[in-house]
Amino acid sequence: MRWWDIEPVLELERELFPDDAWSRGLFWSELAHARGPNATRRYIVAELGGKVVGYGGLAAVDRTGDIQTIAAARAYWGTGLGARLLVELLAGAGEFDCREVLLEVRVDNTRAQRLYERFGFEPIGLRPNYYQPGNVDAVVMRRADYPESAESAEDGPTEDAPAADESAADEPNPQQTNKE
Could you give the dihedral angle defined by the CA atoms of residues 140, 115, 35 and 65, in that order, rounded to the nearest 10 degrees? Predict the structure, then answer.
């Protein structure tokens, strides 16, 4: 993701998360940590026909990765785009030499929870009232022993969602987009 991706990402962010969308300033702040020799972030976008249809971000500190955000446009739900974004973020965690990867997901977002479970994430806790406004709880999930368990992510998701290399040329693929 680069600075010129922020506006289209914000449009998608507001559509998908109208009550708790990230601000422009938050994306700028995250991107400020995504470049240079001391980078601690990896942000990606998936584009189709020049339009952003998905994005994701990872922070890495002290060999722990934290998936900050991941989203796919509703029109691409069930196409494997979310899985491809997750594969790219996990690859980024490997490049940061992370030993574990954490994330938070809304307690009512069972679709995302199932995706994360297919990639080896397990629930480890609950953050009450994490998503504001609305006081929605977050399930904290962890993928431990990341390098040792990385083979399952490299192989891709289970058979019910296509891996990145199975996507058709006209489908969005985060491997074909800006990554920084």
Answer: 40
Residue 175: how many other CB atoms lie within 10 Å: 15
By annotation, the residues acting in catalysis are: 104, 116
pLDDT tens, position by position, 45-99? 999 999 999 999 999 999 999 999 999 999 999 999 999 999 999 999 999 999 9
Q: What is the pLDDT of residues 3-38, one digit of tens each?
A: 999 999 999 999 999 888 999 999 999 999 999 899
Q: How far apart are CA 76 and CA 83, in angstroms?
A: 11
Structural domains of the chain, ranges and CATH numbers in brackets: 3-155+171-176 (3.40.630.30)
Do residues 1 and 180 make contact, with C-beta atoms less than 8 angstroms apart? yes
Indicate the pTM of the whole model.
0.81
How many CB atoms lie under 10 A from the CB of residue 129?
A: 11
- Could you tell me the end-to-end alpha-carbon distance of the chain, in angstroms, rounded to an integer? 6
* DSSP state string for 109-163: -HHHHHHHHHTT-EEEEEEEEEETTTTEEEEEEEE-SHHHHHHHHHT-S-TTS--
Question: CA-CA distance, 74 to 70, in Å (whole number)?
Answer: 13
CA distance 9 to 23: 10
